[in-house]
Write a structure and sequence with these properties.
The chain is α/β, with parallel strands linked by helices and 242 residues long. It has one domain: 3-Layer(aba) Sandwich (Rossmann fold). It has 9 helices and 7 strands. α4 links the parallel β1 and β2. Bound molecules: S-adenosylmethionine (SAM).
Amino acid sequence: MSVRSRFEAEFDEWADTYDQTVATGSDVFQGYDDVLDAVAAEVVASDGAAVVDLGAGTGNLSARLVRRNLRVTAVEPSLAMRHALRRKLPEVEVLAGTCQHLPEGLPPLEAIASTFAFHHVSPAMRRRSLARLAEALLPQGHLIIADIAFAGPQLRRRIFGELARRDRHDLLGNLRVEFYPTVDVLLAAMHDVGLQARARQLTPWVWLFTAKRGPLDLGISTPVPRPIHGLRAQGEAESLAD
Ligand SMILES: C[S@@+](CC[C@H](N)C(=O)[O-])C[C@H]1O[C@@H](n2cnc3c(N)ncnc32)[C@H](O)[C@@H]1O
């Protein structure tokens, strides 16, 4: 079973400076700390419950989950990121794995939480990956994903057009290579594998998807976006590349 990610070399190289990048809060990392706080707050689990931080990077979400007294396993494909995480959080178990291939031997999980990582799963693998994540959860378990997503295809086209006009080919290239879904597509994939899911917007770029195992429900729920205070809504595409 492969636990390798096609993006591994890029993240190995980025590991030492990743925390500096997110601290700038630029582009997709606007409101980074608030996003991670929002995800940690969504984790409904009792003290000592087993949870996974999936695509954990340098462990910034893991740190928040540890502070909640949870038993955190950080799952991360990049070796250099795993080293950075171990240096930061020696008490956290760190394992190689991906959204598509969780490591063997995890206990049944109260929650799987993931920030800025699920977009590495290709559309072809999305449902299979979600189904496996759902299987790894306890019956009352939750899947919480915060990631870059687009409210719809038209808005995505507008944003891409705006970035091209602003010569932001660096960001545009990244957005084109990785697999950023529209909100309804990711919600539908979650529903298809038997997860009850909801989404709300956290920043101009990031949506929070919360899902739990439950009866099949094909209704798509996208409540009115509630951006974090001080951040503009994604609909304001012209302001995104400032
Ligand atoms: C932008 S970083 C986010 C790290 C961390 N979760 C955070 O919020 O700062 C994306 C992380 O996802 C990891 N990754 C890449 N492909 C992945 C996959 N298929 N499944 C899980 N994680 C993956 C990368 O190695 C990297 O550490």
